[in-house]
Amino acid sequence: MGSPYYTNTSFDYNQKKANQEPTTMPYCQTAFQIVKLDQVESLLTVFAQECFIGGQAAHQLDDGTFSIDAGENDVRAIYDEDNTAIRFFCRYKRDMKFYDNKLQTFAAKHGIDIAVACLQLNSNNGGTIL
């Protein structure tokens, strides 16, 4: 899956750092599908420029994720090589719907295929991405 630092439902951005508790960021339910590796940074740069005030360019960070929100660090992207998709994750679960709407609007405007995960509520664990 490209990076050992993410699971199907969240991204652990502190996993590489010693002596820190894991901190996970929940994935948005929207992913951009069928994106070639050589198109990732340019596509994310257009997204940053169109969707964030002050957004100039997407920047790949040391952990392989992309900073896309003009330095706010509330949403990031990661390329899933196995599925040729760009997945997005939020700092706060409460913002997922906001960013999913933003991603879906951008994808529709630019003719990008998307995958939308379904969230199944479960009394045992709170939720499962299907």
Distance between the termini: 17 Å
CA gyration radius, whole angstroms = 14 Å
Please count the beta strands (DSSP E, at least 2 residues each). 9
Helical proportion, percent range: 10-25%
Residue share in β-strands: 25-35%
* Shape label: globular
Which structural class best describes the helix and strand composition?
alpha+beta
Largest sheet: 7 strands, antiparallel
What is the averaged pLDDT score?
Answer: 79
**Unreliable runs:** 1-7, 13-22, 119-130
Number of helices: 2
Q: What is the succession of H and E elements? A: EEHEEEEHEEE
Task: Walk me through this protein's architecture.
This protein has 130 residues and is α+β, with helices and mostly antiparallel strands. It has helices at 40-51, 96-110; strands at residues 10-12, 24-32, 59-60, 66-67, 75-80, 85-90, 114-116, 119-120, 128-129. It is globular, with a radius of gyration of 14 Å. The protein starts with 9 loop residues before the first strand and ends with a strand. Mean pLDDT is 79; it is low at 1-7, 13-22 and 119-130.
